[in-house]
Structures are given as structure tokens and as C-alpha cells.
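seq:
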Amino acid sequence: MERRNYNPMNDYLFKFVFGREERKRITLSFLNAVLGREGVDELQDITFIDRDIEPQFAEDKLSRLDLYGVASDGSRINIEVQLVNLQHMEKRTLYYWARMYQSIRRGDSYQKLDRAITINLLNFAMLPQQKPHTVYGLYDIQSGHRLTDDLEIHFIEIPKFQVKSIKELKRLERWMAYFSNKLSEEEMEELAMSETAIREAIQAEHV
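struct:
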């Protein structure tokens, strides 16, 4: 398998591979890996939705969620890919999450608010933690009690991923290896053989 001369995290390429109805299986595999879903808890389907966010601030331009959909369990999921470090990434993430969570119509019950999950796939290091995958939620600062699971924000910082033997990689690590562009031709071949969805993603890049 030839070594890539392009970045799989390119916005257009990512949407082409992960945002197509006919390649939904690839997206679900990635989502289940990020969310740690296994067996009966795995997401079985996702409905892709095109959605624009109107500018609310002076410095904003019209923003488009990179990949937005509603999963089979009702969760609203936004995957945003960032190649460069934008200012105020934390606030930007919360803003996008809040707009996604604001899904009920006037007069509806708050019970109709669906869980909203944001996944930030970053091509740069941003957080102080050394691990490449960090998950934030709503917790009591002192006791650690989780108020609700309606808010879940993931940061996947690809530069923090350390290459190791493909056989030793866990499910999410295999996807991080796919996005990292750090693998040799032989390692890419082995990675493709280790995960069907990753092999399909690599094949889709060349369609």
C-alpha cells in the first residue's frame, strides 16, 4: 500500500469518506471507537444532516459543522476536524455544542432535549494532558458526581498519538493511526487488514 501524500484530515476528504450515506459503516465504526460502544451498546445507524450555523459574533463567518447527524439512540453528534489551532477553541466548541443541543421547539417539554456529543479531531496539541483522547462532561467539582450525560465533548489530538506495533493498538488507537500519517507502507497495509472499516476508508480515499 502506497504511502499517502495527502492529509486524511483534510476537510473535504474527511466529509467525502465519512459523510456519505453509502459509507455510513465507516462513520459508525469510528464513532463507536471514540465513544467506547461495544456489543449491544454500539450505535447501529446515523442520519446525516446538513446544517449551517448563522454568525452570532462580529468575528464569525458562516460556519458549517464538518459532520453532523442523529444516531440510532437519539444522540446528536458533531464531528469537527481542525488542521490549525484556532483562537478560543474551547468557547467555539461550547457554542457549537449549545446550538446542537437547542433542538426542542417552543412549547415542547425539556425531556425532549437529546444528548449532544461533540468530537473534535485535531491536527495539533491543545490540552495540557499528555494522552491523545480526552473527554469532558458536566461534573460536580468536589465530588465528581455527573449531573447529566447530555453533554459530552471529546478532543482527539492526533500529534499526541505515539506509533507502536499495529497488533498492540486498541480500537480507537487504530483510528488515530489512520489519521496520523505516521505509518510506513507496510504498517498501513497491516492496519488495513486489522480493521475492516479502516480498509474501506482507505479504499474510499482513492475513489
